[in-house]
Amino acid sequence: MHNTTILFDLDGTLIDSTDAIIESFDVVFKQLGLNECNHNKAKSLIGYTLEDIFLKLGLKKELVPDAICKYKVHYRKISLSQTSLLPYAKEAIQNANSFAKIGIVTTKMAKYITPLLESLQIQDFFQKDINIIGFDNVTHPKPHSEPILKAIDMLNADLNNTWMIGDTKLDTQSAYNAKIKSVGVLCGYGNEQEMRKYTDFICHNSKEAVSFIKKFKK
Q1: One of this protein's GO BP terms (predicted)?
Q2: For residue range 50-93, what is the model confidence (pLDDT) as tens digits?
Q3: Residue 10 to residues 117, 187, 214: CA-CA distances in angstroms?
Q4: pLDDT tens across 155-201, in order?
Q5: pTM above 0.90, yes or no
Q6: Domain architecture of the chain: domains with CATH
Q7: Confidence tier at 111 by pLDDT (50, 70, 90)
């Protein structure tokens, strides 16, 4: 039985769905008759909830529910064809699985993750209701501690031997709030300086992060 547990974020940590996300925002802005979406700002917000992103992109609060619905409709149509594994992600998952319990903690809807994992051929490592926590599984998403604590409970993991790997401050802050260790990775959308507010450990990608954790535990 593995004593170590590693929780992965998805977007920017294991997968690249940038094109699908940005295209979906563009479609929503066009359908609502708004000015063009600021792509750079939208990319910097990936990892937040859709509600938070739309508000930070300047939408009026009363438009957000409709915007979220329109976003989901388009994203579901294109996400599988426009999402890929990041370099070294599969190696990271395989290595982590060899010495640790593993799971996913994300702000994506859990019910949409399984088809995505199947498309990327990593479904054997992650299964809904076993080791995946998504936005629809919690009341308070990252950076709150709830998603991580729920994953720890689901996996019957040891809090003191659990790590979070993610690419934004939402991941490292959530880990900090849950009182676990984390590794920030630079292969996604986050800012290193922001991540370092909540962790001392930064790696280039998830493969390096897993190798670091494996050595750290010895």
Answers
A1: DNA repair
A2: 999 999 999 999 999 999 999 999 999 999 999 999 999 999 99
A3: 10, 11, 20
A4: 999 999 999 999 999 999 999 999 999 999 999 999 999 999 999 99
A5: yes
A6: 4-16+84-216 (3.40.50.1000), 18-78 (1.10.150.240)
A7: confident
Contact between residue 114 and residue 80 where contact means Cβ atoms under 8 Å apart:
no
Buried b (16+ CB within 10 A) or exposed e, 45-63: bbbbebbebbbebebeeee
